């Protein structure tokens, strides 16, 4: 597809400080100002600014690992869940604020992700990595079990460092947390078994 971006990011390669980017308008302005002087990056950055879909090869994401790509200036996480991770999603629903993703379904969850896994394929989760409270980027807490700042029956998921919102491995927010919604599932579709298109979900 000619108007999409091909992403070559490594697995979770960018430990970028998305918090700083999302919370720092000045930083964004600074980057935008610098880009025109870096001619080789200019087309890519222009396409990003225009919201072009992003093409992602997911073949290199190992089970239990996450890749981060950028779409419309936001981090999008692609997590390849293990069978154990998928099984955990059926066990934590009593503790979730919106287990069926009924809140703002059109905005937060496309129709094809309105299921327990919040995904097209059970093993591949695609979510925007920005907390629905005030826009911080939650940290990976994929290991189940007791650990600092998390409950003893933690099933694995994400912890937002700003005000403590927690999300399970489908990006569903736990009850009684400041975040009002589940993490957003962006529009996406499979171009092949191993190629995802983020930002578009209709075949031409
Ligand atoms: S921004 Fe995530 S809990 Fe406040």
3D structure, described in words:
The chain is of the alpha+beta class and 204 residues long. Helix content is 17%, strand content 20%. The protein contains five helices and ten strands. The chain has helices at 18-23, 25-34, 42-49, 83-88, 105-108; strands at 5-7, 54-57, 66-71, 74-80, 124-128, 139-141, 157-159, 166-168, 188-190, 195-198. The chain has a four-stranded mixed sheet with strand order 1-2-10-9. A hairpin with a 6-residue loop joins strand 7 (157-159) and strand 8. The structure holds FE2/S2 (inorganic) cluster.
Average of the residue pLDDT scores: 83
H/E topology pattern: EHHHEEEHHEEEEEE
**How much strand content do the residues show?**
15-25%
The secondary-structure class comes to: alpha+beta
Roughly what percent helix? 10-25%
Ions, cofactors and other ligands present here are:
FE2/S2 (inorganic) cluster
The rough form would be described as globular
Extended strand count: 10
C-alpha Rg, in Å?
Answer: 17 Å
Oligomer designation: single chain
CA distance, first residue to last residue? 10 Å
> Strands across the major sheet, in which order?
1-2-10-9
User: How many alpha or pi helices?
Assistant: 5
- In this structure, how is the largest beta sheet organized? 4 strands, mixed
Low-confidence stretches: 8-17, 19-43
